[in-house]
Every structure is written in structure tokens, then in C-alpha cells.
Design brief:
The strands form four sheets. This protein has a six-stranded parallel sheet. It has a six-stranded parallel sheet with strand order 13-12-11-14-15-16, with helices on both faces. Helices cover 51% and strands 10% of the residues. Helix 4 runs parallel beside helix 10. By secondary structure, it is of the alpha/beta class. The protein folds into four domains: 47 residues, no CATH class; 162 residues, Substrate Binding Domain Of Dnak, Chain:A, Domain 2 (Up-down Bundle); 148 residues, Rossmann fold; 234 residues, Rossmann fold, CATH 3.40.50. It has 26 helices and 16 strands. The structure holds FE(4)-NI(1)-S(5) cluster and iron/sulfur cluster. The site of iron/sulfur cluster has 13 residues, from loops.
Length: 649
């Protein structure tokens, strides 16, 4: 591990340059928090009522229960469930905002927005059962938006539309028999908070299943978010850009957009062009827009905006002294950024009523007047350019070229050049023939408990070498973009022979330069990852738990990461997490999510903090699924029957 607990050369350079200044970052504060409380680390601390905190030790008589009598398994499962409720709230509230924006757009109440992707609108409308024939796009959009908003609060018991239309019959049946179908997003979250209230559910199995229902609500919310964002802002297509702190420009006004929701950031991208002259008049060479975290991913995917950095190093973007403003909306914005600004001229501008940081500027984003709000933000940034301190400027020279923008639609379009009749067959045939071992999706965050970006890169290189096709979202995608793994160069350097052959073949047929790791978007775009495995399984005539498809969050951090992992498991995907979440205080809950889940759903969690071992485990899971698939396919061919639906052991 380096002195600075990061493998990112730009981050190391900034931390080194600032080491004599009294600036606290997440890297320092992690050290300051050591040792962290073991009760909290293992999940056996309960603060759900104010008789607590109760800290239980199951082996110690008298201390083995909370004051109310709650045992370790109740406490651990309640804590985990509440993480999921938090994650589902964040993702789905984001989705709700996009749905409101689409509705307001259709009703003429958000005049600065329009439906940019009519094709996607029609595809989504068809999928969710909105009438298309002879209707105008605004009317279709209105019905789609209302249908999406209905998924949040309907009072009937049938599953949410955006869940039901996106999964296969086998999963529908599974979710029905396990009673985790979510009938309404808000209801599932509220019910889970109720279920985990002091003195309601004490049964850990029941609580975990309640958690899974909320996790499916999380999935529903993020599917709405992806679909409706594509309708409003366009479905991503391959786009070239660059990543890491070297994307900041010394002589330009540098504006970073950080957070999650593309409603604001898309408008900023729009107005930046019209305000370039104002920046020039103010002594700059123009405006340079860069992204951080998932807002960064959203505008990278659709508009090719360069990615400055990911979650773990967000404060370091300010410590370049070159950032004139950081505009933030919601989620994953470290409050510590404001304190760093005390030493630099950077202005933090918050934009959402319920997401403020003491000391930062606040310009409330107004949907009805979006363009004007965005102009105000950019103008404030231009003005702040004059407050720069040359002596504090330090832009690391690290920057990598990347190609992003791989929505499933874009991938299938590219694949269609190699296989016009069955585009997805490009990938499924490669799995069936053994050319590749399977697919791995990298998701999730940075986590100070481990070396910044290290495990993400290490596991991916190991899997690529072993012919695993890689896709990524979120801050994992941020890591890959900074390390040149979302470029053609990445294929040359790290792909094994089968993977190289496959990517080369698609590249030759399509004429599109392809990366080692396919950037599928922000964290809500894990819905795209789900659609990828869903499409693959349908094409191969198997169920998801049979598919050689795994997921990993080497640096999972947020509640959202936990809810994503949980619905992936419920959908049938083995899901590795590289940081131990607080559940090992209850062996029962640990077994539930790592073992029992496998029997019930086919998916399960794999907790492994060692990157090398994690890669080996993921490979082993892929190989065992591929082997079974081959055995069943051969049997099916020999006896002219369909392939067996069987979970792996
Ligand atoms: Ni996902 Fe994206 Fe990053 Fe983690 Fe946060 S920005 S929504 S939660 S930290 S990947
Ligand atoms: Fe303690 Fe029970 Fe209250 Fe939790 S709910 S803090 S275990 S008394």
C-alpha cells in the first residue's frame, strides 16, 4: 500500500503536494477514526430506540440481548434492512424526480426540456403498455411519466410495472413465491421501516426478505430513472473523452458537476456553450466542464464530458486549486469538500432544497426556469475564476483517453454489425463456445477502508486475463477510466486471448474502437447491466441463475451499493463485496446472505477482502456455471429436450 492509500497517481501527487498544509481529507479522517468500534463493525449495535445504544455479545450471559430482548440476529438484520431502505430511497427518489421532469415537460411546465429520444420513448411505452398508435410524443411521454409515478404509490398488490416488464417468467414466479414482489416503491420502503421499528419484526429471515422487497423497489426506481433519463436526454452512444485530474485546464474556468441527477447537469452542459464568450471576457480561455461521481458518469455517457475523479478523491479535485466551482445536487457529496474550500478559492454550489452544506453557496434549481438556474450557476463560476491563487495551483499531468457510452442499445447496435440477425448472440455464442468465461459487472464506490481504486483494478485485470467480458458502472467505472482500462489500449494490455479475439472481431465488424471495460453508466444504470443479463439469458433459453454472470463491488460504501447488491442477489447473480459489511456479528444472517440465498434465489453474496482471492472466487463461479451450462446443453441436444433449469451448487 502506498503512503497515501491510493494507487491513483494524480491523487498521490495532490496528497503529496498538500502534505504540509493543514487540510483534512477523507484519507486523513479515516486514520483519525481508528480504531473503529467492533460492535458497529460487526453490526451488533442497535440504536433503533432511545433505550439504546444496546451492544450485544451472544456468548456473554446478560449481554446477549438488547434491553428489549433483541438478539444479535434481529439487530444485524434490522440494520442491514435499514441500509437497503436508505439505498432504495435515494435511487427511487432520483427516479421520481426524473419522472416528474418528464411529466412537467409533457405538460409544458418545464419549457427548457424536451423529449430528445423519441425512439426510446416509443420502446419504453411499448414495454410498459402505453398506447402508441397515432399519438404525439408529448402525449405518450405524459402517460409514460404517469405510469412511472404510479409505481411509487399505488395501493393495489400487483407488482410494480418497471419490475414486472424487466424480468423473465422464472423470476416473476420466484418473487411471487418468496413474497418479495414490490407493489409500490414508497410502500416497500415505508413497510420496511415499520418492519424494523422497535418491537415489530424480530425474525431475521423475515426481515431480510422484507429487505429484498425494498431492494426490488430500488431496482424499480433505478430502472425508471434510466429509461426516463434516456427519453429526456438521449440514450448513450459510444463517445470519446478523457479522465483523471489532468482534465482540468489551467487557463480555463473549471466547473465540476458532482452528485447524481442529470436534470441539472444536462442543463449546465447546454448553457456552457452559450456562455463561453462571457468566460473569455473575464480573462479565461473558455469554460471547461468536468464530472465527478455519478453525475460525471451521466454526462460522460451522453455528452462526452471528461471525468475528473471518483468518490474517494473528490476533495482532491478542489486541492488542485484550479476548480472554480463544484456544483452538487444529491448523494455521495462528502461534506468535507466545504472545509477544503476554506484553503482554496473553489466555490461549492448546492442546488437542491434538501441537500445543503453549511458554508456553501446555494442556488436552488428551478425546473420551471431551468436554463436560467443553470446560467446563474455558470456565471457565478466564471466570476470566481478571478479569485484564483496561482501559487496554490497544481494540476497533475495524469489523464487517460477513454471510450464510454455503452448503453445496452448501443452495445446491441455494435454487436449487430457482427451478427445482424441476433446481435446479443455475439456475446452469448462467445460464452457457449468457451471463447470467454462469462461476464462480470463492476459496480459501487470507493471505500477508505481499502486502498483507493486498488482492488477494482486488480480484480478486473485478473478477470480480463482469464477471458471475462467486463462492464462497469458508478465509481468503479471512474477507476477504470482513470487507469486506461476503458480504452483500446486496455484490450492490448490486459485481455486474455479469447477476450481479445472477441473484442477484435466486434471491432472489425463495427469499425468502433472498443475498450477492455464497457462503461454502462452511473449507479442507477445498473438497470442497464440487469437488462444485459436478462437479454443474454433469454437468448440462451436459460434462467438468470444459470448464466455465467457475476458482479463485484470491490469498494462498496453507500447504502445504495447495499441495495443494488441485494437485488442482484435476488435476481440470481453471485455478488462479490470487497469490504466486509456489518453483518458478521450474526452467523445466522451471514449464512442467510451467503448460503441460504443461493438455495432460494441462485444469487448470493461473496465477501472477500483480498483482491486476488476475490478474482479467483469470481472466476470459479463463472467456470462452474459455464461448465453446468455446457453439460445441460449437451444433454438437451442429445435428448432433444430443453436445457434444465438448475441452480448451481
Ligand atoms: Ni454509486 Fe454514484 Fe460513487 Fe458509490 Fe456514490 S457516486 S450512485 S454510491 S460512491 S458508486
Ligand atoms: Fe436496545 Fe431494543 Fe432499543 Fe435496539 S430496539 S436500542 S436492542 S432496546
Amino acid at each position: 500500500m502506498s503512503d497515501y492509500r491510493t494507487i491513483d497517481p494524480a491523487a498521490t501527487e495532490i496528497l503529496e503536494a498538500a502534505k504540509d498544509r493543514d487540510i483534512s481529507t477523507q484519507f486523513d479522517r479515516y486514520e483519525a477514526q481508528q480504531p473503529q468500534c467492533k460492535f458497529g463493525l460487526t453490526g451488533i449495535c442497535c440504536k433503533i430506540c432511545i433505550q439504546g445504544p444496546c451492544r450485544v455479545i451472544s456468548s456473554k450471559k446478560g449481554a446477549d440481548k438488547g434491553i428489549c430482548g433483541a438478539r444479535d440476529y434481529t439487530i444485524v438484520s434490522r440494520n442491514v434492512a435499514r441500509y437497503i431502505a436508505g439505498g432504495a430511497s435515494a435511487h427511487s427518489d432520483h427516479g421520481r424526480d426524473i419522472a416528474h421532469t418528464l411529466l412537467s415537460t409533457a405538460e409544458g411546465k418545464a419549457p427548457d426540456y424536451r423529449v430528445r429520444d423519441s425512439e426510446k420513448l416509443h420502446a419504453v411505452a411499448k414495454k410498459v403498455g402505453v398506447e402508441l398508435d397515432g399519438r404525439r410524443d408529448v402525449d405518450i411521454a405524459k402517460d409514460v411519466a404517469i405510469k412511472a409515478l404510479t409505481d411509487f404509490g399505488k395501493y393495489t398488490d400487483e407488482p410494480c410495472t418497471w419490475l414486472d416488464v424487466n424480468i423473465d417468467d422464472e423470476r416473476k414466479k420466484k418473487f411471487k413465491t418468496t413474497r418479495i414482489n414490490t407493489p409500490a416503491i414508497d410502500r416497500s420502503v415505508v413497510q420496511l421501516l415499520h418492519e424494523t421499528h422497535m418491537g415489530t419484526d424480530a425474525d431475521p429471515v423475515n426481515i431480510i426478505f422484507g429487505g429484498l422487497q425494498a431492494a426490488l423497489a430500488d431496482f424499480t426506481g433505478m430502472s425508471i430513472s434510466t429509461d426516463l433519463s434516456d427519453i429526456l436526454f438521449g440514450t448513450p452512444e459510444p463517445v470519446k473523452t478523457s479522465a483523471n485530474l489532468g482534465v482540468l485546464r489551467k487557463s480555463m474556468v473549471n466547473l465540476a458537476i458532482h452528485g447524481h441527477n442529470p436534470v441539472l447537469s444536462e442543463m449546465i452542459v447546454d448553457v456552457v456553450d452559450e456562455l463561453q464568450d462571457e468566460a473569455r471576457k473575464n480573462g479565461a480561455d473558455g469554460i471547461n466542464l468536468v464530472g465527478i461521481c455519478c453525475t460525471g458518469n451521466e454526462v460522460l455517457m451522453r455528452r462526452g464530458v471528461p471525468m475528473a475523479t471518483n468518490f474517494g478523491s473528490q476533495e482532491l479535485a478542489i486541492m488542485t486549486g484550479a476548480l472554480d466551482a463544484m456544483v452538487v445536487d444529491v448523494q455521495c457529496i462528502a461534506p468535507g469538500i466545504q472545509e477544503v474550500c476554506n484553503c482554496y478559492h473553489t466555490l461549492v454550489i448546492s442546488t437542491v432544497k434538501f441537500s445543503k452544506i453549511p458554508g456553501s453557496a446555494h442556488i436552488e434549481f428551478d425546473l420551471a426556469n431551468a436554463r436560467e438556474s443553470a446560467r446563474q450557476i455558470v456565471r457565478l463560476t466564471i466570476k470566481n475564476f478571478g479569485n484564483r491563487r496561482e501559487d496554490l495551483m497544481h494540476i497533475p499531468a495524469f489523464k487517460k483517453d477513454i471510450i464510454g457510452g455503452f448503453s445496452l442499445e448501443a452495445m446491441l447496435d455494435i454487436f449487430s454489425k457482427a451478427n445482424p440477425k441476433r446481435p446479443i448472440g455475439v456475446l452469448s455464442d462467445a460464452v457457449q463456445s468457451g471463447e470467454i468465461k462469462g461476464i462480470c459487472a463492476f459496480a459501487g464506490c470507493n471505500n477508505q477502508k481499502v486502498e483507493h481504486d486498488a482492488a477494482i483494478i486488480k480484480i478486473a485485470r485478473e478477470l480480463a486475463k482469464n477471458d471475462v467480458f467486463l462492464v462497469s458502472t458508478g465509481c468503479s467505472a471512474g477507476a477504470f477510466s482513470k487507469f486506461g482500462m476503458m480504452s483500446q489500449e486496455g484490450v492490448d494490455l490486459y485481455a486474455g486471448p479469447g477476450l481479445k479475439k472477441l473484442i477484435g472481431r466486434i471491432q472489425d465488424a463495427s469499425g468502433v474502437g472498443l475498450p477492455l471495460v464497457f462503461h454502462m453508466g452511473s449507479c442507477v444504470d445498473n438497470s442497464r447491466v440487469q437488462q444485459l443479463w436478462h437479454t443474454l439469458a433469454l437468448d440462451m433459453g436459460i434462467s438468470v441463475p444459470e448464466l455465467p454472470f457475476v458482479a463485484t463491488a470491490p469498494e462498496a460504501t453507500s447504502e445504495k451499493a447495499i441495495s443494488i447488491g441485494s437485488w442482484m442477489v435476488a435476481m440470481g447473480i453471485p455478488c462479490h463485496v470487497g469490504v466486509m459489511p456489518p453483518i458478521d456479528g450474526s452467523p445466522l444472517v451471514f449464512d442467510l446472505v451467503t448460503q441460504v440465498a443461493r438455495d432460494v434465489f441462485g444469487g448470493y453474496f461473496i465477501f472477500e477482502t483480498d483482491a486476488e482471492k476475490a478474482a479467483a472466487k469470481l472466476l470459479q463461479r463463472l467456470e462452474s456455471r459455464a461448465w453446468r451450462l455446457g453439460v445441460h446443453r449437451k444433454a438437451a441436444e442429445a435428448y432433444n429436450t430443453s436445457a434444465n433449469v438448475l441452480y448451481e451448487s
